[in-house]
Design a protein that fits this description.
The chain is an alpha/beta fold and 245 residues long. It has eight helices and eight strands, in the order αββαββαααβαβαββα.
Length: 245
């Protein structure tokens, strides 16, 4: 597949999402997700997907795109999300992604050796290698307080689209944030239970499914020990992804 073909398939899928998911009566529209940088993700040697629950915006009407936000208004993306009100989600994502990419480049790294965003803001550009995918495509009904019943309803309704999205993005590593709280999500998506751990005290579970490393972890914003969270995900990549290459 060429980059142009990939872009067309993404656009076609977004059209399908808009046509099938928009709440036209209440003028509520999807918040579109996918690669933050289409070109960089397409060419990335290691493709990482974060599979999350839902997004929100202040107005609650949606009709914007993570890709456009990151690619076309990066400074505001950095200010509003990474350094702003969503920093508890996005900063662990940045550090984890940065560590994974270093690890996949055969550079042993842990949290203590990752530069802080305040000192080296350019590390945020590692997000060009990720796709950000939400189960719920419409804006959160509860703002930052997710109701898992809403996520389950969205999952049941949108599963064919989510499945098509994952197939098109074809990530090497999938990190699932906080989805284990609703039993059956990950089993239905991947057709396999995700229950292995590196050790009994680990916070994350994983499975290698069709040459993809699928990691189930807490939502990054829920984590009280950021260092443990990030290091454990990097450890799984070191032990289970790098060794199969």
């Amino acid at each position: 597949m060429t980059l142009k073909e990939f872009e067309k398939k993404l656009n076609d899928l977004n059209d399908e999402i808009r046509d099938n998911i928009s709440d036209n009566e209440n003028e509520i529209f999807p918040i579109f997700d996918g690669p933050l940088s289409v070109k960089e993700y397409f060419n990335a040697p290691i493709k990482i997907m974060w599979l999350m629950k839902e997004a929100y915006d202040d107005e609650g009407n949606g009709d914007w795109s993570f890709t456009d936000f990151y690619t076309n208004d990066y400074q505001r993306f950095y200010t509003d999300l990474v350094r702003g009100k969503s920093n508890k989600t996005w900063q662990p994502v940045v550090y984890t992604t940065y560590g994974i990419l270093k690890e996949c480049n055969n550079e042993y790294i842990e949290y203590d050796h990752i530069p802080f965003i305040w000192n080296k803001p350019e590390i945020v550009k590692c997000l060009s290698n990720i796709a950000w995918v939400n189960i719920q495509k419409l804006p959160s009904k509860n703002g930052t307080n997710t109701d898992m019943n809403h996520i389950k309803e969205a999952f049941d309704l949108y599963f064919p689209i989510i499945n098509k999205q994952i197939e098109l993005l074809n990530p090497d590593i999938i990190i699932c944030g906080g989805l284990f709280r609703t039993p059956g999500f990950l089993e239905k998506i991947f057709g396999y239970s995700i229950k292995e751990k590196l050790d009994s005290k680990s916070w994350v579970e994983y499975s290698v499914i069709n040459d993809k490393l699928v990691i189930s972890a807490y939502h990054p914003s829920y984590v009280c020990d950021k260092e443990k969270y990030i290091n454990e995900i990097i450890d799984v990549v070191r032990n289970k992804f790098n060794k199969q290459k």
